[in-house]
Amino acid sequence: MKTKVAWMLTLWMALVLEHSRSDWIPSGSLMLPLSVGCLFWTRNGFGCLLAGLALTALWVLRPSFAPLDVVIVLVMAAMYITRGRMQDRWSPAESRPTQQTWWRHPVSVMLLGIVAHALLQPETNSANAISEIAHRLLIAVPCLIACLLVARTADEFGWRRRTTI
Amino acid sequence: MLVLAVGVCLADKAGSLTSVRMTLHNLLSPGRLVLTAFSAPLANQTKTTSTPPNLSEDEVANLQNALLQNELQRRQLLIENARLHNQVRSMKRLATVESVTDQQLVDFVGVRAKVLSRSGLPNALTEAFIDAGKAQGLQRSQLVVDGTGLLLDKGLDSRLAQGQKVAHGTAVVGRIAEVSQWVGLVQPLTHVGFSAAVQIVKLAPQGAAYGAKGMLEGTGESNCRISGIPYTEAVAVGDEVFSADIDGVQGPRLYYGKVVHAEFSSGGQWDIRVEPAFRSEDLTEVTVVQQQLNRFRTSASTNGVPGTEVPRQSANGGVR
Question: Which ranges constitute the DSSP H helices of chain B?
Fold first, then answer.
């Protein structure tokens, strides 16, 4: 319960920050990494629901062509999480993922989400697409790295309960 | 979640997301208030620590000129907006009546004049005028003006006449009080004897709109007073004041200033104070507004109707 409340508050604060300070923080640069962090931290239906709601709220506040970034993030994250859970089951015939690739899935989901989000914004055109993506990544990448490091630290110290099927 | 995303997208296209958006704004508002509370001291701190930009005198002068131009443009747009609103209103009423417009009978022209002095006619100039006038057979009374105020370098030779309005840009400075052969003396609008018909223009969210009409009078101080507006009319501080007419003739609206004080007086009227839109210290050149009859129309009428007398301008600028 504490984790759920903490993530709800975190996402709400991120939404407030992005919406109030749109001159400082490009749209999606906080919400996307935090939503991805929430998805990969909780790794359950509640995380998907919360992250999906937060990203949908962001889209409602700043509508673009279509919420494709929300769809991409949710589908890819669900795919990776499901595959990861399948791999978590112990089986002597299958190789387990190496410990060094734990950050790849969240980063790839966030990168695709950021690219999709930036390209769908009305102010983005072919001339400034790269700079729009780069501006968002400047904030999003450190934010996601911080989330993943916290998650990893919590795993190492046993502060996070991981549900297994 | 995917169904929700698609549904939200369709709802947005249909325009039915307004209430959801408002609810979201309400949900975010506590956080935004907190953020504002934290960011305000930071902004103040930044303001106090930042050093003012070093601008040269030329740059400052250019910026001031640009500011003045913007202000003039704003006033013109304001009165244009009010006029268009009025026009739309009357067009709606008279939509079925067709009218034929022709050339204007009375035109308003501006004669540019330099400010020679701010305290009447100096003695040195008086002597020079008398000496020069004697050679042309002019008397002293035709050459000098008595009184204090702005002295213009245009007079009867430029068809200046008593009562003509004097403006700086579109802002009224005063009117011609005395005029001699070569110079004219301006009575500023803050002078006790000055009065003019004015109309208040209100700035509403829908645009500018004409308000009550009254009489602007000088007080002898730095501001003016408007009288004759009953308390049933709506007046507020910040309203703009424009001329109602020019010497009784409908013409271009000139700007007088801004309402800086408005309260009910005991006589059932508003006590309104207006801050003039000019500073006499800054004036170096002004425009004298004159009325002129349209030559094409007057010559056409005299040619067509034998014995018709050509209207002439009166001494105070009116048409007779």
Answer: 2-14, 18-49, 57-93, 123-135, 295-304
